[in-house]
Amino acid sequence: MNIIVTSIFVQDQDKALKFYTETLGFVKKHDVPVGEYRWIALVSRDDQDGTELLLEPNDHPAAKEYQKKIFAEGIPATMFGVADVREEYKRLIKYGVKFTIEPTEMGEVTLAVFDDTCGNFIQIVQK
């Protein structure tokens, strides 16, 4: 069994698409109209046949409540692996990304957490 798609709730699909592609560097794989929203799936530039990240609209009340509560608690909605957290931190700071946790060593990993501007905290991790 493999993970083929995972999703993250976003407040605005267009804003999220711009942030996740232009700032984070993901590649748009699918952008299909589905009613008033779209099926927007992104992939890693380095693994375009790998796991897809779905930018899921948080239109459902349960999704809004979940996103709001974990954000209020400072809990990252998901985690992305990077080769070098400190270098990625420097790169993202140049784009104006706001970090809530700067690169920090925790045992065998180095991590940092930033605000994706779409209602989520995202953790980046270097193993």
In CATH terms, the superfamily is 2,3-Dihydroxybiphenyl 1,2-Dioxygenase, domain 1
Multimeric state of these chains? single chain
> Which stretches are poorly predicted, pLDDT < 50 over at least 5 residues?
none
Overall mean pLDDT stands at: 97
Overall geometry comes to globular
Number of helices: 3
Count of structural domains: 1
CATH top level?
Answer: Alpha Beta
- Report on the biggest sheet: 4 strands, mixed
Helix content: 25-40%
- The topology string of helices and strands comes to EHEEEHEHEEE
CATH topology category name: 2,3-Dihydroxybiphenyl 1,2-Dioxygenase, domain 1
Protein name: Catechol 2,3-dioxygenase
Pfam family, one: Glyoxalase
InterPro entries: Glyas_Bleomycin-R_OHBP_Dase, Glyas_Fos-R_dOase_dom, VOC_core
